[in-house]
Design a protein that fits this description.
This protein is an alpha/beta fold and 763 residues long. The chain is built from 20 helices and 40 strands.
């Protein structure tokens, strides 16, 4: 059979390795075969995404509910050394135990950008990982880089059963042929556990292109899963799959196969608490023989398919989160005693000896990786050189701005998000770009902007990919095709927008269809650019076409409907321009020009160009809120100011002060920053007896947070005396006050808000 011929090269090495386990000069008595109930513990991590060092995270409701801390608080989470401590502790509390990593340990923090995955593989090896799956982001620096890192540093089996690698004897051979294997077998005190890996297919750039750059041909998920299950079943007691397919594909795989006991999944960055129980062999039912069945390829059969009849069983499906926030522990009670599997109403046992040990019961615990977890010194020592090198190579602690309230990458409405709008605006207005509109993928924004000081490191966390900005010309027809694709993709993902845009507005209908046979998802009410001449509005009804979303309420102007006969210039990431995430409408465009300006750099420069956090009090009652110069605002602030359409006093110059009261009378959240009157402490304060000659009003939280950020430099001092001396030299409060006079403010004045530019209909 053709499929089996494809798999033959992959099977040879693992089979030889498995047989070799029993060879050697010395022999020992074989471990007796187990009977009846026994235990197995599976420790699972996945989607670490280079979060090898602890980081700050503003917690949402989901993470708070899973034990990371209180909702909306800022928690210090993650870190490979903390994960290693949890893994080691749980190993000590179990007898038969495996730690399996589900892939995507690459990409997501600066350590990957500078060391290409070396630190990630070394960290997993140092913590004693038993096996790892290769997923999509392991290929972000190419197959050659992955092969080098695994060969140099991996001390564990690396799995991927659903990749057919190129023949090593041919030009362009994959460097992974010597390091990847489809499965591995563990002998745990008499229990034989077969572990099969299923890598990601849907998100791997160019894997379906011919010829592709990775040297990989993807194989059919169901066929591969059933093939290796059948192969291992006679020689193992338990079949465990570690996958990076995503929840939906995991479930479809199980429903169309038989014989799998447990699936440890990843890719969606979710936690299943408790794990799901999915019925295998449940997709097809033959009423004539009153039995379920699975379908497998057979070119010799009349229909090309053969049926295998089987009895549905419950399979445990577990996902354990992402970004080094959690470690999952799955405890299984297994048995090969028919008495443990009684049939309905106490009838004949449903146990099938072919399946070896089956799951009787399970218990799942999720361990949050918080700052209360100690750090494993071995992993800490392994990672220390990389941390020192990062300090030398890139000043990751360099401040970019101050985020008073942070910025979310997802919107509660499913449409445009505050961070997405700010990023797309940074691309759209970047000098050297400046197109009609911009578009970037939502999933490319990998982290929220945490409230507090914004550092270069956070910019890497938000934009870990080294993607640049590409420009291209699109016809009106291509613009419609582009947004229709976005609509279909968004409809298939819970009616949540998969892009973020600037310079345009659109309504995405997740239920409408272009034709009766087409998938749901249609883009309507597309607007590009404001009307010229300007048309003021406060609602859609005041715009000439009265279309949904035609009024930009934030700016107070109507937008221009796009023209299908016109031409528009788009700014997007080079990843999407190359057809990434399925954007074929962009890939086939022949007008592309890569500006070589990284998205990350555009965002950094855009934030830095903003003003510091400043006082903008409400306009006095007698001021004219028309955006013109206002004597009333000027008198209130003591400098030239205007009364804006929002009814606040806007100004370009900093507000001077001598004591805190000069600032707090205008806004209680502001204080007077003055080097000669500041009092150092855990909370910065001012000495009213020493008024400042020429101070500036700054945000109180900015001064306190930046001072704490500066003070952290001294925290690891060997003695308390040295720590005090370090703080005296740094003068954190004085330095912070001066810094906040100039540090850019991440607020709505640079577009950090949702304005309904992407509206989702049909959720």
């Amino acid at each position: 059979m053709r499929f089996r011929r494809f798999l033959a090269p992959l099977l040879a090495a693992p089979l030889v390795a498995t047989l070799a386990l029993g060879s050697g000069c010395e022999t020992s008595a074989p471990t007796p075969r187990l009977k009846g109930q026994t235990h197995l513990t599976l420790i699972h991590t996945s989607d670490i995404h280079s979060r090898l060092y602890p980081y700050n995270l503003q917690l949402g409701q989901v993470d708070a509910g899973l034990g990371l801390g209180e909702a909306l608080s800022i928690a210090n989470v993650g870190g490979a050394a903390r994960i290693s401590h949890i893994v080691g502790r749980e190993r000590a509390r179990a007898s038969r135990v495996l730690h399996v990593d589900g892939g995507d340990c690459f990409q997501g923090a600066p350590v990957f950008n500078f060391f290409s995955g070396e630190a990630e593989i070394r960290a997993l090896s140092a913590m004693g990982t038993d096996a790892m799956l290769v997923a999509n982001h392991e290929f972000d620096r190419g197959a050659l880089n992955l092969g080098i890192q695994l060969q140099n540093w991996a001390s564990f089996p690396v799995l991927a059963a659903n990749y057919l690698l190129e023949d090593p004897s041919q030009p362009g051979a994959s460097p992974l042929g010597a390091v990847l294997q489809p499965y591995t077998v563990f002998h745990l005190d008499g229990l034989r556990v077969g572990l099969i890996g299923m890598g990601n297919l849907s998100s791997m750039t160019s894997i379906f292109d011919a010829p592709n750059r990775l040297g990989i041909t993807p194989l059919n998920t169901v066929e591969v899963a059933q093939f290796y299950t059948d192969l291992l079943r006679p020689i193992v007691d338990v079949v465990v799959f570690v996958t990076h397919l995503g929840l939906d594909v995991d479930e479809r795989m199980l429903q169309n196969t038989t014989g799998i006991d447990v699936v440890l999944g990843g890719h969606n960055h979710i936690v299943l608490q408790p794990p799901k129980r999915v019925r295998d062999c449940s997709a097809n039912f033959d009423a004539e023989v009153n039995s379920y069945y699975i379908e497998l390829n057979d070119p010799n059969a009349e229909t090309g398919k053969i049926r295998r009849y089987c009895r549905p069983r419950d399979v445990v499906l577990s996902h354990s989160g992402a970004f080094a926030k959690y470690v999952g522990r799955l405890d299984l009670v297994l048995s090969n005693d028919p008495a443990d599997f009684p049939g309905a109403s106490g009838g004949e046992s449903e146990y099938d000896p072919v399946n070896g040990f089956e799951v009787v019961s399970k218990d799942y615990r999720l361990f949050p990786v918080t700052e209360d977890v100690p750090e494993d010194p071995i992993v800490l020592a392994t990672l220390e050189p990389y941390a020192q090198s990062l300090d030398a190579l890139a000043n990751l602690d360099l401040l970019v701005g101050y985020a008073r309230d942070g910025s979310r990458r997802f919107s509660t409405s499913g449409g445009d998000s505050p961070l997405g709008n700010m990023i797309s605006t940074a691309m759209w207005l970047r000098l050297g770009v400046q197109t009609d509109f911009s578009l970037t993928n939502t999933t490319g924004i990998r982290a929220d902007l945490v409230p507090g000081p914004v550092t270069v490191e956070q910019m890497y966390n938000i934009f870990p990919f080294d993607n640049s900005i590409s420009k291209m010309q699109l016809s009106g027809v291509e613009v419609q095709d582009l947004f229709d694709f976005v609509a279909r993709r968004s409809a298939g993902r819970g009616c949540v927008s998969q892009v973020q845009i600037a310079g345009a507005r659109v309504v995405i209908n997740c239920t409408q269809q272009k034709t009766p046979d087409s998938p749901p998802g249609v883009a309507t009410n597309i607007y590009i650019g404001a009307r010229n001449p300007k048309v003021a509005c406060t609602s859609d009804a005041q715009c000439p076409d009265k279309g949904l979303g035609s009024c930009d309420v934030e700016a107070g102007v109507c937008w221009q409907p796009f023209d299908s006969l016109a031409s528009y210039e788009l700014a997007t990431s080079n990843y999407l321009a190359a057809g990434g995430s399925g954007f074929r409408v962009l890939q086939r465009n022949t007008t592309q020009f890569d500006t070589q300006i990284q998205q990350r750099d555009a965002l950094v420069d855009y934030i830095r160009a903003g003003e510091p956090c400043t006082i903008r009090p409400p306009c006095p009652a007698d001021a004219n809120n028309n955006g013109s110069q206002s004597d009333e605002c000027g008198k209130l602030l003591g400098l030239p100011a205007t009364c804006t359409n929002d009814g606040v006093c806007d100004h370009d110059e900093p507000i001077g002060c001598k004591v805190d009261a000069d600032c707090t009378k205008l806004d209680k959240d502001f204080v007077c920053a003055c080097p000669e009157s500041v009092i150092e402490g855990d909370v910065c304060s001012s000495d009213a007896a020493r008024p400042c000659a020429a101070g500036t009003c700054v945000l109180r939280a900015c001064r306190d947070d930046v001072a704490a950020f500066q003070r952290a430099v001294c925290e690891n001092a060997p003695t308390a005396a040295i720590e005090r001396e370090c703080e005296q030299e740094l003068a954190p409060c004085r330095t912070a006050g001066e810094t906040c006079k100039y540090l850019a403010c991440v607020d709505r004045y640079i577009g950090n808000f949702s304005d309904g530019r992407i509206r989702m209909v049909g959720q």
